[in-house]
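Appendix B.2, paired examples.
Example (i):
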Amino acid sequence: MRWEELRDDADGADEGALLSAAELRPPPRQRGTGRAGLGSPGEGPVLAGGDDEPMAIEIRARSIINRVPGASHVPFSWTINPYRGCSHACRYCFARRTHEYLDLDSGRDFDTKIMVKVNAGELLRKELAHPRWCGEPIAMGTNTDPYQRAEGKYRLMSEIIAALCDFANPFSILTKGSLILRDADLIAEAAAVTEVSVAVSVGFVDDTLWRAVEPGTPRPQRRLDVVRTFADMGLGCSVLMAPILPGLTDTEEQIDRTVAAIAAAGAKHVTPLVLHLRPGAREWYSAWLASEYPELVPRYRELYRRGSYAPKAYQETIAARVRQARRRHGLIRERGENFRENGSGAGEEADEAETPATPAQLELL
């Protein structure tokens, strides 16, 4: 694998690195007990495929603040992703294809072979202190979830938030993970010195569908408890209502039920996004759909026949349903409130414009 030399247990791991392990390695820190249900890969190479148990693969990153490519249609320029792969195992996750860059597969490997950038906290402090860094907002949760299972052991987000707080650097977090509540006081401390935005992703509140399509995440109601906690703290919390799944969560009744629950949790506002299916996610989600809801296959083939995004007319229909539900439940968004507008955050389903100018020609199923 191209990344094997970055493993924390690799011989000669410092060779070619921008900073040596001796420079980066911090004093011993408190980690969580156990391994958060994740095994160790052992000393041999990590191979693609197979039915291996979930594992945490510790690597030493060479940089941690990432510039967003100019062609990306997102309201932020810099991101931090302490993990690659995600044990939330969402069938639709757009980031699945990034595991192929590691010579792993975008299906089960993405769910079970989690890269952990164990030096994220100390490396971030070095990068924030660099004279060239200008203190621009940093978005987290834009690729894989920073509060997935491994974070319970590694506590990388606690270190990252502490560093951003110490440098008064603005940041945003988008997550499905209730583990963010562990860092609530730290986030509040940061919000006292810089601009902070927190958003939780809740696309629907159907527990049966949740178990099938987002099996590694906290249940929707638990995520709404996160929203309520931040609201009670006076910090406020947005909800990214994403993804809205055609044929599964898109009726007026289903949308109204979800928006009602979001409003009852005290969300500042809600932003809907319709499912989009890029290569990697497309194949994985399509196989699941064909197995569990074969009657929906023709509809999806038609909706996504031109590329990764549903037609604009369908997106506008869904947006109108959400607007009506917001009005019914008192969630009237004021101009500039939306984290997609003010540039303080976004997430998995928000990482590109909802309707690209030139959609790729792809076959679904």
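Example (ii):
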Amino acid sequence: MFYNQFFKQSFLTVALSVLITLSPVCALDAAAQNDQNDRSFLFFGKKKKKNVEDADTAAAKSDYDKLVEGGDYVSEGMFKVICKDGKYYFEIPRNLLGKEMLVVNKFIKVPVELNEAGANRGMNYANQLVSFELDSLAKKVIVRQFRPLPDVSPDDALSRSVENNYISPVIAGFKLEAYNNDSSAVVINVNDIYDGTKTSFNNVFVDINIGTSPNSDLSRIKSIKAFDNNIYAVSELTTKVSEPGGTVYVTVEVGSTLLLLPEEPMARRYACPRVGYFTDSSLRFSDRQQRLDRGNYITRWRLEPKDGEKDDYLAGRLVEPKKPIVFWLDSSTPRQWRKYIKKGIEDWNSAFECAGFKNAVRVEQMPDTTDIDMDDINYSVLNYAASKTSNAMGPSITDPRTGEILEADIM
């Protein structure tokens, strides 16, 4: 016991003496180190600070730079479309997040089986209204399928219930790949929604009642390009259908447009049941109603008098529209029929004159070589389809918020 106590006291004495001996040395070392740092800062501090800032900036830009540098191509337009190593990216300006856009899906090429069932090039088989939203915390961009709210006067108390009672569903989510260098845009990879992996933007085989999904191994993106107010993606999608006689593979080539809708929606015009129009509909709520109403509003072109001619128009004089309705004859239209087709379409001007507009409808012939890109949805086209089915139709693309006709095709 005495030995143990003596050992502990001896150990403490030695440890304390070592600590006392080394403390000035450590203090001197620390002081020397601080002095070194001070002198380093005095002589080289500003330069080192700049290097740190450069490193931070390089790190912040690295993700974006890796995406854009050495890419296959970049298409400029509503979004910047970046293609690199078979991957497609949208660079979405942040000022377009939350804006309402219309997804428009059309056939480009169809197999014989679908052609015999009435499907042709240019046929519009599905549309939906969407908007992109940034979730900064989750580092993702989501797509919401926007559904217009029921009509209600903002002065009605019921308007609060309409606003609080409805939510539009989220149909897609994308990892936030990067911000651009000034953080004014976000970058996402969009292969999944166009190569058949996911069907949130294009569910073609369900939309045409085949009831299957694309086989992603047999499907691909052919191209994506940008225009001023829309993006256009071309996909080749294949599915497998099992029938009593065996398995049938069905391949379609489709074009999917993402169209930015007008910033200022056109005023609706509600339909009268005594006059035949194509219509869209919406629910209508009111504090004074005893039962739910449904309003039908007509689909129509936005024809407005040219600048400076509004007074003439209101006075009942014929004026030309600011933006006339223009149809382009596809170059595949047989030459001997072109002048008759043109005359047949332009004969509708007499009807528009009753509405106060002259030269409201024009027909232009698409040259065999032209800078006009018919993939741009801003062009309305007459497609002459090679099909054994004798038929014609004139589907139109409308703004689901208002009924405004944005584009129409004749097939």
